[in-house]
Design brief:
about 300 residues; alpha/beta; Arc Repressor Mutant, subunit A; D-Maltodextrin-Binding Protein, domain 2; two-stranded antiparallel sheet; elongated
């Protein structure tokens, strides 16, 4: 049976796409990596790579093998830190930066206090980038917005909390604000959230239902960058009202509800339907089940 070392080598090759790059990570020559991969293929009785000259590419079988191999490696590593009193070991989680600014950070902090031997490795990024990494087993789970389309078989999304989509405007703008939200959206410099992202698609729905053509100034893929620019008076924007962030008392911006808007950003946990860190993901989901939401539709008022 292949050793855990060989399985780790296979995962390194899958990450880097070449024997040479994988060898540099784990301290082997490209030839040594190649020998390990040949041995793994012989033991499994099937090819994992398509080889053409000096290039190697994972074939369909190889790609399908990544998730179960990653799971085996994590299970083995977890044996070194068995903790009968609680969670322990390393969990690799992806998260939206905006989720880390909000409610998810509280959940992680609470879990870490209760289970001090638990180590959480966080990777920040975009929802659309995390979904395939969870499917391949590169991440144990990820906190993402609700997927706009069906997920692959073997992957599930569980809602955790919701955030209203709201208009934010500066208190000291470098331009004239309209009397109504629609006037502001139509006339003020508009900072658009990247329309190719899942959150950006929600923003487009809000603007479409409001029937407003905005005066577009910039397009960014970061809620945090947009908020910073609004605070400095450079524009207005439609963004999710981040849970656990108190914008109602912000000295540099104010929150303005868009009349008639009922669209929310739903944030949840994406994971494989079966994996070795389900105890961790179950406790994250339980945290949000017992937690009162900060924002409810209709609560936000214009300061």
């Amino acid at each position: 049976m292949s050793s855990i070392r060989v399985l780790k080598t296979f995962l390194a090759v899958a990450r880097h796409g070449s024997f040479a790059a994988a060898g540099m990570e784990i301290g082997l020559t490209a030839a040594g990596v190649g020998l390990q991969m040949r041995a793994l293929e012989e033991e499994l009785g099937q090819a994992l790579f398509d080889r053409a000259g000096r290039s190697i590419v994972l074939n369909t079988t190889g790609r399908l093998t990544i998730a179960p191999v990653a799971d085996l490696v994590r299970r083995f590593e977890a044996l070194a830190s068995v903790d009968t009193d609680g969670l322990s070991g390393t969990v690799v989680v992806g998260a939206l930066v905006s989720a880390l600014m909000g409610a998810f950070a509280d959940a992680l902090w609470a879990l870490k206090r209760e289970h001090p031997r638990l180590e959480v490795k966080l990777l920040a990024g975009l929802s659309a980038d995390f979904a395939p990494k969870v499917e391949r087993g590169e991440l144990d789970a990820a906190v993402v917005t609700q997927p706009p389309r069906a997920l692959p078989t073997g992957v599930k999304w569980t809602p955790l909390y919701s955030e209203p989509m709201i208009l934010i405007v500066p208190r000291r703008p470098h331009f004239k604000l309209g009397l109504q939200a629609q006037d502001t959206l139509r006339e003020a410099p508009y900072l658009r959230f990247d329309r190719n992202t899942w959150t950006g698609q929600l923003v487009e729905q809000v603007l479409s239902r409001a029937g407003v053509a905005v005066n577009e100034s910039l397009e960014l893929n970061s809620v945090e960058a947009i908020v910073a620019l609004v605070r400095q008076g450079f524009g207005v924007s439609i963004v999710p009202q981040l849970d656990n962030v108190d914008w109602d008392h912000d000295r540099d911006l104010k929150v303005v509800p868009v009349p008639g808007n009922r669209i929310q950003r739903h944030v949840g946990l994406i994971e494989r339907t079966s994996h070795s860190r389900m105890r961790f993901t179950d406790q994250i989901k339980q945290h949000f089940k017992t937690r009162a939401p900060r924002h409810r539709l209709g609560e936000t008022q214009t300061p």
